[in-house]
Structure formats: C-alpha cells, structure tokens
Amino acid sequence: MGRSFRVSIPQRSFCHLRYRLALVLFIFVLFKQYHLFFIYRKALAAKYSPTELLQFTKEQTWMPDEESAHFQDRLVANRAAWRNLGEGREGKTFVYQDSVIKTFTPGRSPFRNCAPGVTDKVWPTEVPASLYFGGSEHNATSSFHGFLPVQAYFMAVSSASQAEWHLVTPLLKGGNLKDLAIEARKQKQPYRDIDAHHRPTFERLLHTLGNLHEAGYCHDDIKSSNIFVADDAHWILGDLGNLRQVSHPYHSSLLWRENKQLSDCRANDVMRALKSYMRFVRDSAIDADALNAEFFDGREPLSRLFWSSTANCSHLSAAELRAKSITEHPHLHANSMVKTGILLPAQSYTWLSIFSRRWGRHYAVNHALQTRMGEKLARWWALTGLFGVPITTVCGVRYP
Fold first, then answer.
1. Which domain of life is it from (predicted)?
2. How far is CA 127 from the centre of its chain?
3. Residue 238 CA from chain centroid, whole number
4. Which of 173, 292, 310, 370 has its CA 20 to 30 A from that of 160?
C-alpha cells in the first residue's frame, strides 16, 4: 500500500504572511494618498492663484467719490431692510430697492487678488473685474458693454460682526436665464418660436463674450444663472468672480482637465454659452420633449448649430459661433438637411445615442449640455478640511 504524505505548514507562517501583505498594502495606500495630496494641492493652488489685472491703479479701483460714499452710508444704515436672495460658497446676496448687494465672507472661498493701495489686504476678484468691464455707475470708467456697472464697493461689518467685502450692482428685474425660462414657459410656445425670438439676443451676448476674450480674459463660469436679462433684446454677462487671464495656470491644471474643459479657455466659454442658450430654449418650450427627440438627429437649425460647433470646438471663437448661428438661423426650413461636412451625431456620438435610448432623451440631453465644474474630490484628496485651500496670493506691495 502506498503512503500519503501531508505537508504541514505552521499556522504562524500564515499569520506572518497576512501581516506582511497588510503592511505592503498600507504602505501602498499611504504613498498613493501622499501622491494625490500633492497633485490636488497643486491643482487647487492653480485655481485660486491671482488673476493678473495690471490695468488697475489706486485711482481707478480704490477711492470712491463723494456721491458713492453717501450711497454706501445709506445702504449700510438700512441693512435691516435688505432682502436675502440666497447664499453660496462665497457669501450672501441681498436686494435693497434697485440694487443687488453681494457680500463676500472671509474664509469661505479664498480671495485671489490683492487690493491696490492697501498693504496686506486681499479682495474678491469680482470687484476689480466688475470695475474694469462694467465700470462705475457714478463715473464712466469702462468702454465695454454687456456687463453690469458697479454702484458701490466697500468693506463693512456685517450682521455676523465681521468685516466683509460688499459689491453693489443694479438690480435687473428680469433675473437670469433660469428665471426667464420660467416666465417664457407660461406663454406655451414651441421651441422653434422661442429660438427664433431670442437668437439675435444670444448673438449679441456672443459679441460681449468676444470683447472679453479680446481683452485677454476668460469668464470661466458661464452658465444660465450667470447670464442676466437686461431687457428682451439684451443679456448681460454677470458674476465675474472666476475671471482669469487666458494664460492663467488653472487652464492647464489637473482640475481643469478632470472637469473636461477645453484647453483653450476662450473656446470653452463659447461652448458653455451655447449649452446655456440651448438649455434655456429647451426649458422655455412647451414642446421640450420634441427638442429632446430631435437633438441627436441634428436636422433642426438649433441642433445643427450645436453639433457643427461641437465638432470644431477646440479653438472656436465667439465670432465664429456668431457666424454659424446666422447660417443656422431658426427661420430655415425645419426639416431641411444641410450638409455640414461633419459626421452626423449618431455616428460621432454613438455612446450618447445609446445612453439616449437606454435612459431617456431628457437625461441624455442634460448630460450633453451640462456645465457643472466640481472640485469636491480635489478638496477631499487635498485634505482642505485639515489644511485649508492652498493660497498663493502674496500682498504687501503698494501701488505707486
């Protein structure tokens, strides 16, 4: 009879092996966290680095005149009458009479720029950016159009007993594109009529955006809630807090790429403006489902405009999109198929078409038109809860 042999491995060896594997895994995770910590700290530092605003001098942006000083005093004296509009990461927004007052709470979001003429004082980028592009309502200091003028800007103690920056601009009672869509929906119009009515206004907005780009800056946060309605024929670019020069390091950062933004920030602004306009038309229409159904076919003027722009978006300028918009005017025959020299959406964007059939056109169109830019994951890996957001702004140099 043959003998069977059993190899006996001590239980202790298995324990040692598990401990070693656990140690190796722990070291790997530690180094991975260490790596992610530094790359996301770097990405956030790029995002919150200053915008170069070399045009500003102490006289242009710091000293209010007598009229604006009286206006400021009246605002502060009537703080109890301010109506709260909302609250965001940077601070709060209020309405008082014909003015919108935006406050910036220290510590919520880093102030990226140094205030000229004052040592060691930082202020929100939106203040000097609004002054440059919108000018002062009391002094005509800007040659740009399509931006909100500044009624006042000052630092004052808020209801929370801390000093906060305040930026005051005129109240546009038409609200933003989201508000306009709600009102337009009550008219129960088809999307083709809405597009035909508002397309010239959108093209004027593109002209404003082109002026911003020609000055060497990108908006970086164009979306429906940041496009304001002055009247039926004019829309205003608002919320310039994310304004950055074209060469700003954020535009080549990991955070920018992870949010799938175009490498040319000007083309990125243009596509975000087009997406915002399309969402406005869709959300205003009584037949939104019809637009959703046609969106991936690319046979209507509006969807053709989107897909032809998307196919050549890497360096698309505001002027080029305006020209495309005129070519694809909504008064063209609804079902005429124009040969654009590009692949049809069903061929170029197969995964979106599949997504459309599987989950519903509404959600697929929402995905194609989304403008969200997040940084929650970056903040998590960068441990901003423990170490804060990395800040590279260094103040202390006085303007001559």
1. Eukaryota
2. 17
3. 11
4. 173
Question: Who's near 168: CB < 8 A, 6+ residues apart?
Answer: 71, 72, 75, 99, 100, 101, 102, 150, 151, 152, 153
Q: What is the pLDDT along the chain (400 residues), one digit of tens a residue?
A: 555 555 555 556 666 777 777 777 777 777 777 788 899 999 999 999 999 986 654 445 555 667 778 888 899 999 999 999 888 888 899 999 999 999 998 888 889 998 876 556 889 999 999 998 998 876 656 667 899 999 999 888 876 678 899 999 999 989 999 999 999 999 999 999 999 999 999 999 999 999 999 999 999 999 999 999 998 899 999 999 999 999 999 999 999 999 999 999 999 999 999 999 999 999 999 998 888 888 888 888 999 999 999 998 999 999 999 999 998 887 765 444 444 444 445 444 555 555 555 457 778 888 889 998 889 999 998 888 888 888 877 776 543 3
Please indicate, yes or no, whether residues 337 and 315 belong to a single structural domain of this protein: yes
389: in domain:
no
**Residue 137 structural domain:** 58-171
Kindly state whether residues 187 and 138 are assigned to the same domain: no
Virtual CA dihedral for 328, 330, 334, 339, nearest 10 degrees?
A: 0
In this structure, how many other beta carbons lie within 10 angstroms of the beta carbon of residue 67?
Answer: 12
Whichever domain contains 150, its CATH number is: 3.30.200
Q: Which of 103, 182, 100 is nearest to 148 (CA)?
A: 100
364 in the same domain as 301: yes
